[in-house]
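Deliverable D5.2: sample structural annotation.
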Amino acid sequence: MSRPNILFVLGDDWGRYTSAYAVDEGKMSVNHLIDTPNVDRIAREGVRFRNAFVPAPSCTPCRSSILSGRYFWQTGLGAILQGAEWDTSIPTFALELERHGYHVGYTYKVWSPGRNPDAPFGGVRNRYQSAGDRFCWNFSRNATKLAANMSVERAKGVLYREVRDNFDEFLAARLGNTPFCYWWGPTNTHRDWQRGSGKNLWGLEPDDLKGRLPAFLPDVPAVREDFCDYLGECQAFDAGLGVILSRLEAIGELDNTLIVVSGDHGVPGMPRAKCNLYDIGCEVALVARWLGRIRPGRVVDDFVNLMDIAPTLCEAAGVPIPDNMIARSLMPVLVSDRSGQIEPDRDYVVTGRERHVARARPGKLPYPQRALRTSDFLYVRNFEPDRWPIGDPGILDDPTQAEPDYQTLCNKTELTYADMDGSPTKAWMIHHRNDAPVRPLYQLAFGKRPGEELYDLRTDPHYMNNLAGDPAYREVLDRLGTKLMAVLTQHNDPRVTQAKCCFESSPYTD
């Protein structure tokens, strides 16, 4: 068999919002409200992973891990967002594929280089984007503007053509039948998006979300509309994927292409999501299709850390896996005939974070966290519980003022709890922080956290009740804490192996 082409699709802030996962959830899940036929097709004609998690719920450290097949703390300055710099001594799957004859390129986002914008993005050197980036940045805003002079469907079609033309530019640069690796990285699910676009562009009704939101989100109109608009962007992401699948079919390359689709972390601007180690921040969709190698319709329960993608793509391409890729190839899982649990020891993942945006100003320190997730429990270790987990409060608005416009107010909260993106949801919660029903949710979202957290996901799927101090769970707490520290020590996490952790000083805190 010839070496496969590789299409790697990574949605920025996409999380796990796709109708492909609705089958696993109750009828009141959010995923029952959306329609993502192209992601669903990949799952139906390939494999769907129920337990896929990011190594870090922040774009740069997550992508550093995906590229290198290492934990984010093993990627040097790639472990942070602002101030990040790629260490060119670290092998990546993109570099290895290119070295072994693959035509490698990308459109939209691969990495956030920060300190050195001219450095190659982890080896994905060549960008193909001459048709523009209006699909990628502010899809809903651009579609809404275009729809002022044409129908909504025609307006969306203009942006779909951009996706096609950029992909065609990449294909045109290919030499003969050279196998290719194309990274498609749309960011439209990242903030911000057009207010009301979920309904106006996609026909989604905000009030259909009533009773479906996680327990830690206020179930009020402003939040429902905000989440609805995000779901519209998830459908736009799916539609763009459909454009690329159609082109692959048209050129006869679909069935010789390994397709992997996932996201880099959870929804932005929502409490406990992006930049948090709870499921809504770290759990992502993961589907893959490869005709003749992946049996269609499989559903896998193995726990997967997305850093496993790097050695997987190397092995699929017949490229030697670099010795310092400590992640494990998923190839045995992909080509298995079975569903369910394939490899018994894939029964947990470790996630973590150091610094996102809030601590990027000089003198600001990270908020170090690590977590261990199993099928039943989530254990979180907060190494510095006296620090603010989502950034310090900054300047809060006056909640005694008249009800504001939350779309406008959200732009004024960027430096308030700065590790949560500005959003109508964030603005609403800050403004209503003293309301009795909101106060405990506000504290969960923005308040300081204890050194340890433990959640029994069998009875508490929205991780509302911290059991770390419950004597009945002492054995579980000790067991998971010991396991987490063993993994961190084994893989030389500076947070536990260095007397003075490097993340606490220059250049990480510059």
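Annotation notes: The chain is about 30% helix and 15% strand. The mean pLDDT is 93.
The annotation will be released with the project's public dataset once the embargo ends.
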